[in-house]
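User: For a reading group we're discussing how well predicted structures match intuition. Take histidine kinase. Before you show the prediction, I'll give you the sequence so everyone sees exactly what went in.
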Amino acid sequence: MTSEKGPTTPENGPANSAKEYRALFAGARSPWTRLLPWGVALVLAVVLLPVQLNLLVSDYRLDGGLASALAIAQAAPLLLAVVRPLTAWYVIFAVDVVGALVLLSADLGKPLLWPFPAPVIVGYLGLCLALGLRESRRTLLGVWLATAGATAVLEFLRPGDAHANGIVLAVLSGVALVLAAALKERYEVNRRLVAQEAISEAERDRRTLLEERTRIARELHDVVAHHMSVITVQADTAAYRLADVPPDVREEFTSIAATARASLSEMRRLLGVLRNEETRGELAPQPGLAQIGRLVEATARAGIPVEYAPCEAGAPEAVGLSAYRIVQEALANVVRHAPGAPARVALSSDGASLTVLVVNEPPPEPPGGPLETSGTGHGLVGMRERVRLVGGTLDTGPLPDGGYRVAARLPLTERDRT
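Assistant: Thanks. Here is the predicted 3D structure of histidine kinase, as structure tokens, for the group to look at:
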């Protein structure tokens, strides 16, 4: 047999002094479930103790003191079974066997149950249920073999006028052990499944975040590469476009061009690491503020009435790209989750920052479900990453009337981003 230590599980790890004596169902969420084992054990002990005592005195004609000792020793350990069922079994099993031997010397006078009175069987079955919920299969098998072996030995000592019930106890205890063990294993499987789903959800969120960062890095590569290409061309042609360029200045321009070309090579090498085998390079320039109007028109053609208030002020390419993607994701969410809902897109600038506002009203009719049940999950994640990239702020959330609001503030200067 194994020790009293509970089984090693992902929930509690190796049994130790801190968790070895946890009560049954101690990890349950409901307080009523945590109290259930204590309630059952208390009811069994309170009910079986006087019933067993009365039965031993009146039917089996035992001395009152001896009967009290046996009844207490058979019922009280049931309370211990809530925390340490195997220790309780050691006590109750030994007392039950001793009690059966004591009943051999009793003058029954009439046919009675032997070797185990009915209260003993009820208490033993409750103990078996506690064992099945806590102990390992090997321990349960040892418990049942000990029970079956003891009943087999006692069968040879059975008085001639007694109704033997040892086989009944062996069979019922086996059923109780198997049933409780099956319930415990089902609980363990469900708990591990929930834990695995939580891990998988966390991994999906992490993968989505990494994919979105990679996507942003690829897009920013195109923006920065354009500027670096302009620097390279200007530095290479400066000696031909400008008259009377001193030799040292010519060498400086040549150095600037070489540095820019080296930087472009390093960026392309980095981009090769970020791209996977299924990703193809973008052939078109990255969109910006000027393309938001066409994006709004395309959304309107899809059946979403959209009002657009453009901004005449310019913005750096990285900020313009972030604004475009934020509007794109916000309108895509309107199409997915609030089809037919009127929306409004507004861009404004105070000279220091660009404000992007996308607000949609509730849909005319509540949709039966989202149009897309397997979205990419890049919507809010992508917005947050793009806003964080340029040092801005993002505010999203539902409106009191059932609509939704996305507001982003994107700094236009490097000083405002720090």
